[in-house]
């Protein structure tokens, strides 16, 4: 049985409602009525409604749909009629037989003598038998991530995850047919869910929960004009298409509520199953940043009380639907960091997050309280600047601080712990479900700022009671995130996807190690970045002995040359898949002819589309296996050759019943035939409970294909491993690859045996080294040897991307050499605004004003360079009308040495109906003019370059202007901001 979530109240006639220990309706925000319904209990058989009225009064109880107002009782039929006793108490029971769950979601009103008694009340005491009942999953770490790549999340040790669930793609309005739709019955009616979308959600959730991550689903709705999308039904009828992209759910109509309830029931019933068939998700976040609804919960312009009337319906429906499926499901409201002051000025578009909390608390306590919780987003005050320890707009007063950011995050649990804010005397739970640290530039310094931001933020939250998790946003930088780069990975500009991972940032290592024994070692650099000597200066309750809450996997030697002897076969797939299943980045597992095949199919936007990312299959063994002192875990693997995928690798992972994990990876040989792969288990203790196999390539190419497995064995002996072929070679040329320049070569041994052969340098890419051979390394497994050399000959195809070739123990290696990046030419400045003035620039046609500012509200948030930029506010006018900023220098500019003139531009405040934006740079000298017009992208800096090589007027430029406008559909009342920075010139084209 679900524990009571608010005991039924017994009242004396005329008495003030007494606050019972199980939960009270009395708060400082909302006094409870002295009569009316005081509690609604749901059991499997009935709904019980209790309350008070005048003694001896006949009381009729009406059940109204969640969308109906209290007045709708008039003209309808009561579900029960009772008479209050001598004390005024009444108790009505309504059978649930055949109600298909409708009464469970209904609101109840009491009517006596033709008038309402009190106010509406909904179920606040659950005594039902849920479909699933087990303890809420727990993680030893608060570390979480909005996960894009599940295999990488496992490597990172993610303990909490948040997954977006767009209802517009999840739910259909009609049956698309077998294999395309999943039918689902809710309240006696059949609804349909997109089978492909659901399968993709399974592939995200299950690998995470299989690794014991606590998974939360973020319930969202985007515009979707496809004929079978549910968007048209689920969108709130009052939503304004001129507002933001995330829409409020339709809780205004019965049809909208039916669809929404069905969708939540579907998710809860699928992802809270005890058997975890599809994966496990136990947290449900309703919408996104609902205190900024104009952008992130679009319901049109509404006063906060009207907005919350509809939003709270969705919140309560989510709670009721998920608790019917699982006894410990958690429901959350999503909030920005704008605490006592809203993010925007229009009070019908933006609300203080504190007001949302206060008014939700009052609303639910008045109409039947339940344990809704808080999913908070404490980004830094200025999102582009990760140095939150310098945040403005924050104080230490939870009643008045404009923002609660990572700097003063302790105020949030303090405020929610106040008695009037609690539920049944307990603080409502808090997760930090979305916040991140920007990388403001592609520089080592910017990477250090981002990583220091994460380190301090994690440490603060780790030692802060009252917060369950700290879920970082994002996994990979996203090109369409307003110029912000919040990821652990840099995005790849060469891949046609907005968040394709390329290389890891410094913050990746900090994130991975921060909850392990390596925590302080990995974050040591951040003390200098922040300007402190010890973490205790900024982290209350600091206790370094409690940092290591997670044991990372043990990396062991791996080999593709060792052969198992005295082996015990665990699985040979003669009778099927034997429990093996899809895992990270794969979509099907089958067995034919004694071979297990795992398929992975490239899909646009799919998390594991790139060859360099791990994808795989795993099995939970039917019963834990005693390894009996086996020396290794071995199997046969076959990965078809694919030139686009590059070098192929396989990783084996062994999981113990004690929580230990051994893993090892090895490079596969050329060709697509069967190869042996083994990892060292000589240090293993305990029993083996699970096995996982991953494969990957080495390139950024999209890769569809399959791999095969056979003969999973525990090897008593791994024989023939003397030939070491599993090494990683790297080369660093800190002064470039020119002849006579130094090079350091590193050899890391990931094999089972020491490296005993010499390392030979083979000529390739026009580069050779001196010496051309390094002696026997004697490198032990798991260690690295380094060698210093000099470039003997250098004629690479690309000096900024050179390669070296080596031969070791009969295996050939081609290695990309790390060299200093190609120097970026710097323009000679003309206007940089870094003195904090507009430097003579003026507002031209379509612009209301110009000013020099140090930051802006949207991406990229900070100047293109230096400390200030020029920001212009446009007049409210047609989006197609040009908006111009210009300068007439007091003395003509002499740029006679210039070959080209450049300026960086940006804008924010997107124009509805626009298909793009154009900018024009114009230079004039008397009556002579040069100009260039080009498209640009808002929310990021765009370089505009004008070739002036053959223009005589460049020696006396007396007018410079920059003009922008939207293209596509017209929006007649558009107000935007347009920015200019770093106008300068180059003496080369």
TrEMBL record:
Residues 1-21 form the signal peptide. It comes from the Bacteria. Pfam families: DUF5722. InterPro entries: DUF5722 (IPR043780), GH (IPR017853). Residues 137-537 form the DUF5722 domain. Keywords: Signal. This is DUF5722 domain-containing protein. It comes from Kribbella amoyensis. The lineage of its organism: Bacteria, Bacillati, Actinomycetota, Actinomycetes, Propionibacteriales.
């Amino acid at each position: 049985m679900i524990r009571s979530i608010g005991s039924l109240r017994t009242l004396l006639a005329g008495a003030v409602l007494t606050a019972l220990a199980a939960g009270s309706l009395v708060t400082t925000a909302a006094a409870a009525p002295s009569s009316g319904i005081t509690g609604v209990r749901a059991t499997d058989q009935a709904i019980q409604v209790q309350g008070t009225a005048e003694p001896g009064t006949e009381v009729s109880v009406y059940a109204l749909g969640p969308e109906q107002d209290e007045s709708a009782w008039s003209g309808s039929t009561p579900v029960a009629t009772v008479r209050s006793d001598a004390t005024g108490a009444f108790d009505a029971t309504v059978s649930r037989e055949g109600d298909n769950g409708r009464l469970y979601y209904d609101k109840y009103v009491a009517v006596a003598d033709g008038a309402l008694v009190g106010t509406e009340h909904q179920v606040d005491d659950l005594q039902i038998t849920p479909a699933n009942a087990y303890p809420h999953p727990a993680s030893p770490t608060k570390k979480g991530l909005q996960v894009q790549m599940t295999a990488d999340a496992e490597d990172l040790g993610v303990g909490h995850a948040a997954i977006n669930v767009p209802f517009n793609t999840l739910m259909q309005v009609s049956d698309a047919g077998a294999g395309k739709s999943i039918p689902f019955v809710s309240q006696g009616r059949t609804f349909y869910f997109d089978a492909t979308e659901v399968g993709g959600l399974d592939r995200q959730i299950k690998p995470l929960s299989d690794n014991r991550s606590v998974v939360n689903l973020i319930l969202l709705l985007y515009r979707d004009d496809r004929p079978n999308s549910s968007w048209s039904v689920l969108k709130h009828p009052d939503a304004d298409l001129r507002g933001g992209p995330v829409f409020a759910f339709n809780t205004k109509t019965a049809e909208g509520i039916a669809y929404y309830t069905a969708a939540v029931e579907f998710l809860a019933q699928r992802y809270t199953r005890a058997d975890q068939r599809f994966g496990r998700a136990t947290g449900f976040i309703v919408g996104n940043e609902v205190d900024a609804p104009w952008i992130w919960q679009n319901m049109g312009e509404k006063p906060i009380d009207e907005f919350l009337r509809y939003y709270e319906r969705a919140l309560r429906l989510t709670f009721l639907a998920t608790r019917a499926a699982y006894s410990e499901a958690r429901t959350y409201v999503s909030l920005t960091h704008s605490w006592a002051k809203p993010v925007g000025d229009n009070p019908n578009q933006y609300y203080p997050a504190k007001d949302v909390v206060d008014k939700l608390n009052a609303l639910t306590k008045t109409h039947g309280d339940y344990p809704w919780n808080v999913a908070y987003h404490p980004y830094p005050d200025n999102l582009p600047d990760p140095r939150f320890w310098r945040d403005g707009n924050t104080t230490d007063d939870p009643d008045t601080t404009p923002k609660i950011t990572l700097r003063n995050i302790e105020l949030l649990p303090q405020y929610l712990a106040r008695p009037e804010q609690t539920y049944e005397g307990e603080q409502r739970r808090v997760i930090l479900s979305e916040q991140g640290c920007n990388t403001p530039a592609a520089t080592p310094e910017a990477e250090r700022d981002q990583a220091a931001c994460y380190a301090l933020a994690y440490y603060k939250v780790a030692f802060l009671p009252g917060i369950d998790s700290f879920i970082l946003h994002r996994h990979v930088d996203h090109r369409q995130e307003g110029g912000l780069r919040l990821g652990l990975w840099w995005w790849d500009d060469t891949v046609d996807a907005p968040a394709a991972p390329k290389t890891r940032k410094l913050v990746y290592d900090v994130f991975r190690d921060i909850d392990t024994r390596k925590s302080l070692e990995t974050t040591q650099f951040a003390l200098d970045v922040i300007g402190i000597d010890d973490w205790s200066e900024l982290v209350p309750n600091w206790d370094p002995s409690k940092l290591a809450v997670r044991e990372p996997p043990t990396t062991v030697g791996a080999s593709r040359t060792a052969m198992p002897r005295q082996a015990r076969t665990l699985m040979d797939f003669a009778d099927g898949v034997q429990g093996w299943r899809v895992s990270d980045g794969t979509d099907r597992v089958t067995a034919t002819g004694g071979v297990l095949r795992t398929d992975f199919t490239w899909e646009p936007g799919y998390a594991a589309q790139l060859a360099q990312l791990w994808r795989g299959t795993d099995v939970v063994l039917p019963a834990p296996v005693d390894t009996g002192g086996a020396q290794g875990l071995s199997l046969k693997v076959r990965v078809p050759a694919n030139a686009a995928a590059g070098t192929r690798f396989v990783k084996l992972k062994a999981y113990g019943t004690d929580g230990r994990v051994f893993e090892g990876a090895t490079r596969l040989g050329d060709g697509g035939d069967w190869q042996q792969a083994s990892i060292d288990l000589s240090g293993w203790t305990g029993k083996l409970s699970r096995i996982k196999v991953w494969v990957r390539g080495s390139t950024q190419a999209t890769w569809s294909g399959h791999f095969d497995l056979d003969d999973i064995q525990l090897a008593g002996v791994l024989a023939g491993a003397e030939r070491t072929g599993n090494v990683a070679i790297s080369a660093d040329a800190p002064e470039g690859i020119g002849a006579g320049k130094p090079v350091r070569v590193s050899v890391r041994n990931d094999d089972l045996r020491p490296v005993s052969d010499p390392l030979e340098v083979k000529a390739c890419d026009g580069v050779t080294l001196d010496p051309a051979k390094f002696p026997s390394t004697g490198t032990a497994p798991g260690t690295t040897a380094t060698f210093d050399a000099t470039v003997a000959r250098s004629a690479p195809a690309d000096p900024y991307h050179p390669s070296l070739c080596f031969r070791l123990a009969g295996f050939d290696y081609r290695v990309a050499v790390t060299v200093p990046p190609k120097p970026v030419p710097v323009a000679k400045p003309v206007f940089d605004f870094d003195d904090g003035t507009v430097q003579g620039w003026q507002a031209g046609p379509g612009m209301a004003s110009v000013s020099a500012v140090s930051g802006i509200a949207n991406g990229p948030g900070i100047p293109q360079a230096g400390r200030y930029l020029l920001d212009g506010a446009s007049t409210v006018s047609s989006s197609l009308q040009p908006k111009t900023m210009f300068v007439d220098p007091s003395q003509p500019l002499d740029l006679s040495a210039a070959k080209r003139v450049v300026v960086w531009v940006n804008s924010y405040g997107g124009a509805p109906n626009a298909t793009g934006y154009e900018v024009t740079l114009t230079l004039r000298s008397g009556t002579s003019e040069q100009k260039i017009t080009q498209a640009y992208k808002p929310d990021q800096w765009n370089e505009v370059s004008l070739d002036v090589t053959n223009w005589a007027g460049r020696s006396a430029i007396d007018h410079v202007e920059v003009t922008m406008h939207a293209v596509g559909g017209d929006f007649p009342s558009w107000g935007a901001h347009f920015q200019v920075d770093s106008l300068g010139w180059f003496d080369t084209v």
